[in-house]
Design brief:
alpha/beta; 6-stranded parallel beta sheet; two-stranded antiparallel ribbon; 8 strands; binds 5,6-dihydroxy-NADP; binds zinc ion; NADP-dependent alcohol dehydrogenase; BDH-like
């Protein structure tokens, strides 16, 4: 049968406001009369003046603050914000921060309106996986380009008691708007810049490196975005390089990497994310670092399954034209590892403090979280995942 694009729906209502001094537009983006709870993380937005700019722009609104959403946001902290929102009779949320603050705010927005225990919004061994039927409206001011959360309908929340990092998605948690000011990235340290490049890179890979279905648009978009990240990555991680054009390309690429456009009509993988999330749960490794430690092993162990796309990746992303198909694939894997190393990312498990004796725990956690049949064909069993962890050591 001729390969053809799969059927799909694509819905994305997020209003993107991109450029310089866009925070000023908050006063018109949030309807008059709304009482706004501003959510933020560990304090970077206070230190660097972003919160003051937001409050200045919202001087005609009544605002309150909820700070302290952790990197890898926890259910427990988000539930404190739910309480504050309800007690203070707020009616709008504004997330100012990176993926963790935005994800936390998505959950807060859904939990406020949820009828029942908000834990049941989640499945995968934590709750009943009940659908979200409404959410409080919210906007975002993005300070860390990485996750794409500013333009998608997903969020990842951490459960300390259950030792789980679980996602949920709902069209009700698309932000109403997201403000993208590339200049807000100037305060990011090298580690977070490298994390942002890497998370974006691997989001594209998870939607691209599967098997071909003749999705020409999706493939060309993905390959183009990967080439951009490879080209700009080493300059972006130079925290002193405040080149506006460079940071603008970084920011928009990261958003497009996971606004789901690339994934429509083509198979998806997400096994690197599944295996990486268990590492973060185990020892709090940064999200992107958990992914880069796993990706090379996924490429090696799943080589036969991903063969055609790996050849295409070698040719179109890395420009490898010489050699047999297998030689092209092997060179592309080596180049991927070299790229990740060049931006100071770990490429094996020992660099993220995972030891051989931890693998049993990681695989057990995958099982508890319903990850026994993952990857583009659902044929990545727990044994295959174990092999990937082993090869990644
Ligand atoms: O907490 P503060 O003080 O604000 O500091 C943060 C945090 O320590 C700091 N930071 C953010 N913007 C800054 C800044 N420092 C200086 N200048 C700025 N402009 O950076 C640190 C990391 O922030 P965080 O928000 O945790 O990082 P990221 O954006 O990488 O988000 C990671 C989270 O997103 C989830 C991950 O699992 C993880 O929990 N993901 C969400 C996805 C989604 N919703 O679609 C998809 C992703 O695959 C990912 O799983
Ligand atoms: Zn990610």
């Amino acid at each position: 049968m001729e390969k053809a694009m799969l059927d799909f729906n694509y819905y994305n209502p997020v209003n993107i406001i991109f450029g310089k001094n866009k925070i000023n537009e908050l006063q018109t983006l949030i309807p008059d009369g709304k009482k706004v709870l501003i959510t933020y993380g560990g304090g970077s937005v206070k230190r660097f003046g972003t919160l003051d700019r937001v409050k200045e722009a919202l001087q005609h609104h009544i605002v309150g603050e909820f700070g302290g959403i952790e990197a890898n946001p926890t259910f427990e902290t988000c539930m404190e914000a739910v309480e504050q929102f309800k007690e203070g009779h707020y009616d709008y949320l504004l997330a100012v921060g990176g993926g963790s603050v935005i994800d936390g705010t998505k959950f807060i927005a859904a939990a406020i309106n949820f009828d029942g225990d908000p834990k049941d919004i989640f499945a995968q061994g934590v709750g009943k996986g009940l659908p979200v039927k409404s959410a409080v409206p919210f906007g975002t001011v993005l300070t860390l380009p990485a996750t794409g959360s500013e333009m998608n309908d997903g969020a990842v929340i951490n459960f300390n008691k259950e030792k789980a990092k679980i996602s949920f998605g709902s069209p009700y948690v698309f932000p109403k708007f997201s403000i993208l000011e590339p200049e807000l990235t100037y305060t990011l340290p090298k580690r977070q810049l490298a994390n942002g490049i890497t998370d974006s890179f691997i989001h594209i890979i998870e939607q691209y490196l599967t098997y071909p279905v003749n999705g020409k648009v999706q493939d060309e978009f993905a390959e183009g975005l990967l080439r951009i990240l490879i080209t700009i990555g080493p300059d972006v991680i130079d925290e002193d390089n405040h080149d506006y054009a460079l940071r603008a390309n970084y920011m928009w690429t990261a958003t497009l990497a996971l606004n789901r456009l690339l994934s429509r009509g083509v198979p998806g993988d997400w096994s690197t994310h599944a295996l990486g999330h268990e590492i973060t749960t185990l020892n709090q490794t940064d999200h992107a670092r958990s992914l880069s430690a796993i990706l090379p092993a996924v490429m090696v162990v799943r080589k036969l399954k991903k063969w055609d796309k790996l050849v295409q990746y070698a040719e179109n992303v890395w420009g490898i034209t010489e050699g047999s198909e297998e030689e092209k694939i092997d060179t592309a894997i080596l180049k991927t590892v070299a790229f990740l190393k060049s931006i100071d990312m770990p490429t094996n498990l020992s660099e993220v403090d995972v030891k051989e004796e931890d693998i049993d725990t990681l695989v057990k956690q995958l099982d508890i979280h319903g990850k026994e049949a993952i990857s583009e064909r659902g044929d990545q069993t727990l044994d295959v995942s174990r092999e990937i962890y082993r090869v990644a050591l």
